[in-house]
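Recall the central idea of this unit: under ordinary conditions, the amino acid sequence of a chain determines the structure it adopts. In this exercise we apply that idea directly, starting from the sequence alone.
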Amino acid sequence: MKKHKRFKKVYLLLLAFCFAFTVNAQQKTITGTVTSATDNQPLPGVNVIVKGTNTGASTDFDGNFSITVEGNNTTLSFSYVGFVLKTVVVGNQSKINVALAEDVSALEEVVVVGYGARKKSDLTGAVSSVKAEELNAFPVLNAEQALQGRAAGVVVQSNNGGEPGAPINIKIRGNTSINASSSPLIVVDGFVGASMPQPNDIQSMEVLKDASATAIYGSRGSNGVVLVTTKKGKSGKLTIEVNTNYAMQSTGDKLDLLNADEFAAYQQLRNPSYVQGTENTDWQDLLYKTGNTQNHQFSFSGGSDNINFYASANYFQQEGVIVNSDYEKMTFLSNIDAQVTDKLKLGFNLFGSRATKNGVSTQSTGETANGGGDDVISLLVRFSPDLGIYDDNGEYTVNSVGDNVDNPYAVATERINETKSDRYRANLYANYDITENFAFKTTFGYSTFNENVGTYIPKTLLITDGGNNGTAEINNRQSTTLLSENYLTYKTEIGKGSLTLLGGYSYQKNTTTRFSAGVQNLIDDDFSFYNLSGGDTPLIPDSSIVESEIQSQFGRINYDWDDKYLITATVRRDGASNFASNEKYAIFPSGAIGWKVSNEDFLMDHETISNLKLRASYGLTGNQAIDSYQSLAKFDNINGLYGGSVVNAVVPDQAANNDLKWETSYQTNIGIDLGLFNSKISLSLDYYNIDTKDLLMEDGSQAQYLGFLTAASLRNVGEVNNQGFEISLNTRNITNDNFTWTTDFNWSTNKNEFKKLLNGQDVFLNAAPSYLSLGGSTHVLREGEAIGVFYGYEYRGVYDGTNIPAGTAVFNGAVAGDALYTDMADVSGARDGLINTDDQKLIGDPNPDWTLGINNNFSYKDFDLNIFFQGVQGGDIYNLTKLQANVGDSNTTRDVLNAWSPTNTDSNIPTVSGVRRSTSRFVEDGSYLRLKNLALGYNFPLEVTEKLGLDNLRLSVSGQNLLTFTNYSGLDPEVSYSGSGGSNDSKANTTQGFDFGNYPTVKSVTVSLNLKF
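Accordingly, the structure predicted from this sequence is:
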């Protein structure tokens, strides 16, 4: 019996061994790597499960996994939060590499808001998010340019076309101010008022548009806020990335100007004694060239469980499409975040840049050279084509008709305009978790900006130099900003609700110093402006210091009940040194509500509607972006004669204004967010209304006998309204393993209207360069009209020498071929048959009816294609370039060959009058649709990159501004001249839609390479 039992045990052990051996013979180990299908980056922590069992593994920091399976029929399941589940049959494979696609419907996207972050589904305000891949869709100098057409209600434009290093102007929901800035507040990694980093360094960008989103920034939120978050390091292996691109650029278009023979014949109509020159020079061909840009960036990032880091260096260089214009910029950025203890986290952000701009003078205001002789673009249009670069004596030629100016090639190549600028920013933060739900964060930041502008006009420029034997000047500006912000955040659950409280204090101080010096009559031209002691006629030096401070207290409440009902309440109290002593402080509150209708029982799990949210907000924001000391009485220096000698003296410059206070914008926003078919279609609709009261405007009604040098001083004297609609539509049209197609569409309108001006009186303005001498205004501010509507005479055609048509008249002494204009007196029933200033009227509106952006992304296997259109409907353009060229004292376009004559009576072009007037003849429709970007990219497959030792390898070819559909006759419909009566101010809100001397917009073809290790 015992032997039998012993035999039975041996038998069972033998059977178990055989079974185990058989099973083991069918087992094998599978290895592989899991990456993101979007960017080929490895995904750590992906769950790898043997389907139908509890056997599983997860990927490491590099996305690698290893798992043992039984048999070839085994199926592996790969799952990761935010990505589509994927299953793979093992078969005969021993190595399986998997690319997971993002599951947009599963992502609860978190967006940055002021002093915190919120799930996108919980937002009650109007916020547009721009992803990193959109900002890097094509190469640009800075991130502002990449924002164009990406967000509804946001208008982005270069201040001077394609000029290397030209600043960028952003406006959100129209102009809300006149003499204060209408630019949005830029916040980078919590630093208020920062400059934009390079696009490749940006992780995300949020545009805050309504009061619910911007009121937390109080006095600086009325023009919107752009929040930028730069890239951070991640735990895992060291990642190295290299981005490099090279672009060839050319001018978008050229004007069809008269050649030498045509020009001479044209001039002889006005002056029969005109003698034609011996040359035939195309000044456009001479000065325009093929330009190029190159942009190279190197970055590395990584970290451990307790510390993460990211650092990058960037080099950008551009050779402009006009000779002697170029720009070079070097930047660096680093982010370090350290979890010091379970409660304490520290971070440090450092940014720096050095830029050098060598520019030709464009967009002349006429202040620095007689007849606008410093403006290369204007000169190459109007300069005589029958002259060459040099005369018979080997000196540069000067104009033969009209303004006595140097030729454009001489001005472009001889005049020196060099700008060197340095920017540095450091920001340190500490976050301490007092309890699980209660945290304190403090930040301290410091930034500095130093700009040195040197100009030199050599004696070889006979007219521009004005016989001064050379003029050298240096202007320096240095600005520093000190920022300290401290705030507490408390989060808790109350029943079915979630409550978040935030309260804090902010202090910011800005200091700007300036100085300038110059000399004339230099010994030689060799040292340019670097040897001021080489001149024996010093110019009057100048220096100044300006300081301003803002201190604020702010708070916010967010309460979400049952993931259905949302409440946001914000308040900020700001104090600014810019205003009168009894008006320095103001309070800016806002409130918003939201209802997640799709989370109600009657819509839960609806087959069509996957998301539906209603939201509404109302609040107050302010604007304090004016120069310091505007409320104080000021004196200015003058030079006077006393006892036959020149002495320094002071005189009253500005009267005190003890009531100067904030502009305040009262903002209403109503929005709907809708998702259909598991959010394959996402739609956001917004209506907004903004009433800006107590407008800061210059009041020039002060009596001159009071003796102040500055007759116009800032007062709170107006009210303006902006209202409009915004549509944002995102669709995932096709999504499968090999092919995807997504579309992003945005469309917005903005209607701008003056509601109130001082005593209801019109304010007439002139944007034309001072030397044009129009004898009147080009635009006007008027109650009931939009900001900056054009003003002048309404052109009605050509007088044929017979009866003057009803409702029209001509200027005195008119003959056949002269221009006809609307006679306002005749229209009113009291015909006088004459044209004078009483017959001027509104002749155009520079504000567009609507703007749009359409972005399509296609991907097929390893290829991707981006097609991006951006456009504007409406928005008139005042073509001052054409106005100047059609007076008769310069070269002009070939249209003049079709001017009215006794043998060409059907023409609508009058004969040359020789008089410059502001008329509707030069106002044109500025509508356009532009192919902003066309890019084809290829992501090399994993088997190739692994052999090369790379994580990712991407090559792309793209074209920018390749096609523009417009009826505008000028060089480009994206115009930005802001002469404003001889003061070129990039913040001018009233000077819109003027085209004069703009640097041409460029077309580009770019090759880009991306490497990741």
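The longest helix spans residues 2-26.
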